[in-house]
Amino acid sequence: MAEKAPVKSAPKPAAKGKNAGYKVYKHYTVKGGGFDRTNRFCPKCGPGVMMAKHKDRQTCGNCHYTEMSKQ
Ligand SMILES: [Zn+2]
After folding, report:
1. pLDDT per position as a tens digit, 11-34
2. pLDDT for 25-59, tens place per residue?
3. Which of 3, 37, 55, 58 has its CA 20 to 30 A from that of 47?
4. By C-alpha distance, which of 27, 61, 56, 55 is closest to 41?
5. Å from CA of 50 to ligand 1 middle
6. From ligand 1's centre to the CA of 49, what distance in Å?
7. What is the whole-number distance in angstroms between the Cα of residue 27 and the centre of ligand 1?
C-alpha cells in the first residue's frame, strides 16, 4: 500500500519587502554541532572555554583575552 507521507506545513513566506530573521544565521557557523578545529581554548581560562574566532584574531568571551592570528 502506498500511503502518502504526511505533508509538513509549508514554511511561512517571508514578509513582503522584508527578510527579517534570516540574516541572523550568517553570524553563526555551526558545522554538525562541532566547532571549527581552528578554535582554541583560552589559555587563561583553560580547557572548556572556547575562544571566538575572528577574521584576524581570537578572543575569549569570558576574560576577553585576545590573541592575534599568525600569518
Ligand atoms: Zn579566557
Report:
1. 776 556 655 555 555 555 555 555
2. 555 555 555 555 567 889 999 988 889 988 899 99
3. 55
4. 61
5. 8
6. 7
7. 21
Q: How far apart are CA 65 and CA 52, in angstroms?
A: 10
Query: What separation in Å is there between the alpha carbon of 46 and the centre of ligand 1?
Result: 7
Q: Is 47 helix (H, G, I), strand (E, B) or coil?
A: strand
Q: Is the pTM of this model over 0.90?
A: no
Q: How far, in Å, CA of 30 to CA of 24, rounded?
A: 13
Cell of 55: 577574521
Grid cell at residue 30: 555551526
d(CA 60, CA 45): 8
